[in-house]
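Supplementary notes for students who missed Thursday's class. We covered one full example, reproduced here. Read the sequence, then the structure, then the short commentary at the end.
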Amino acid sequence: MVPLIITLVVIVLLVVIVIGMYNGLIRLKVRVEEAWSDITVQLKRRADLIPNLVETVKGYAAHEKEVFEKVTEARSAVMSATQKGPAETAKAENVFEGALKSLFAVAEAYPDLKANQNFLQLQQELVDTEDKIQASRRFYNAGVRDLNTKIETVPTNIIAGMFSIAKREFFEVEDLASVQKPVDVKF
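Structure (token representation):
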């Protein structure tokens, strides 16, 4: 009788441990999904602000048509890339950030525009949004790090394998050199 009770206790203890590990993996998975959702929300917010900024700048710099077209195309690319995951979104983000740099360089060339209250407000909103995007990226990458670490370490790797919980990819900047390049502002 005692060996049966010991066996049952061990089995119950193992089941509780497996359930605990599984629940921990699911919590991390949900946290990563939440973080990705935060990124897409902030990207959408920024994309919604861009048309207003473009229209404000257009009034002052009508002959800079190519810059506006690039910003509009890049905005569309980012919005469609969020459906494809972190790698595609990061690529589109690099293009979009370059287009925004060009737009702000154009804005710098027009002193009246720089003093325009609408432009200043939109620019502040974009700065705020960029800060939120960066924070969302860091939160997402921290969640991915924690989830991937759990998936790769013993004994949770066994549980992750049993329930097909897969590693996630980090949100990384592809072309670091182009992102670090300063904006060329000419007057």
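Commentary. Confidence is low (pLDDT under 50) at residues 182-187. The domain at 36-180 is CATH 1.20.1440.20 (de novo design (two linked rop proteins)). If anything here is unclear, bring it to office hours.
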